[in-house]
Amino acid sequence: MTFEEKLAETIALLHKIAGEFSPAVFANSFGAEDMVITDLIAKSQANIDIFSLDTGRLPAQTYALMQKSAEQYPSQPIKVFFPQTAATENFVNQHGINAFYESVELRKACCQIRKIEPLKRALAGKKAWVTGLRREQSPTRTDLGNQEYDSGNGLEKFNPLIEWTEKEVWAYLRDNNIPYNALHDQHYPSIGCEPCTRAISIGEDVRAGRWWWEDPANKECGLHVKK
Ligand code: SF4
Predict the structure, then answer these.
(1) Would you please indicate which residues are annotated as catalytic (active-site) residues?
(2) Centroid of ligand 1 to alpha carbon of 132 (angstroms)
(3) Which of 20, 25, 115, 193 could make a disulfide contact with 57, Cβ separation 3.0–4.6 Å?
(4) Which positions bind [4Fe-4S] cluster (predicted)?
(5) Pocket test for ligand 1, best of 54, 57, 116 (most atoms within 8 A of CB)
(6) Per-residue confidence (pLDDT) for residue 227, from 0 to 100
(7) Which residue among 104, 221, 223, 225 has the greatest number of ligand 1 atoms within 8 angstroms of its CB, and so is best to mutate?
(8) Average pLDDT per run of 10 along the chain, which is 227 residues long?
(9) Cα separations (Å) of 94 from 87, 91, 99, 156, 183?
(10) What's this model's pTM, rounded to 2 decimal places?
């Protein structure tokens, strides 16, 4: 399949989602893939709302990209969801500001408060959600398809870039002058919260910089885990 055919299929899938699974939303975490989808939704005018989760611990470069994105795509506002104040305060006051380094349990508890609970609110009442996942990205993502039922959240989940290669993502970003996270130029292929993301070295897996102190088999925050 040529890249043009792949691109046409991706756009057709976005229109199908908008037509058959309305209301549908796209979860934008401002990674390279997510900027491709943002651009495709804006240009194709597929009726898919965009939201983002602000965990309160994102890198400054991600906030800069949020702002740039709002300026480049004024017709495509991105609704931001924040963690619940009381739960965040309780967790931090009980376990400390950087408790996620202490154990997988505390790391998952932090992700639950700062990501999973806000995600549930963002997905409430929706028929489908769209993500920028690609099969190549992680050992936990090798069996993904472009559509699956998300039983944990009770709605359809679409991964329109599942077959895209990293090279195709970057070619699309550059050819279309799409803004991207400045950390990508500093060897951060995968970007999450600032304290839980580091740069990787040549030859390391693209998600090696996420929760780098944990076993690779556990390295999902819960947003994309199958129940
Ligand atoms: S990635 Fe780190 S800081 Fe962000 S929610 Fe998860 S544990 Fe907390």
Answers:
(1) 221
(2) 19
(3) 193
(4) 110-111, 193, 196
(5) 57
(6) 47
(7) 221
(8) 95 98 97 97 97 98 97 95 98 97 94 97 98 80 83 96 95 98 92 91 79 74 60
(9) 11, 5, 9, 36, 32
(10) 0.90
Any ligand 1 atom below 6 A from CB of 193:
yes
What pLDDT does residue 220 have? 65
- C-beta of 100 in contact with ligand 1 (< 6 A): yes
- DSSP tag of 50: E
- Specify whether the CB–CB gap between 112 and 141 falls below 8 A: no
- Neighbouring CB atoms inside 10 A of 33's CB total 24
- Rounded Cα distance, 135 and 115, in Å: 22
Q: Please indicate whether residue 110, judged by its CB atom, sits closer than 6 Å to ligand 1.
A: yes
**What are the structural domains, with CATH classification, of the chain?**
3-185 (3.40.50.620)
pLDDT the model gives residue 142: 66
Residue 114 CA to ligand 1 center (angstroms) comes to 7
DSSP state of 94: H
**Residue 111 known to bind ligand:** yes
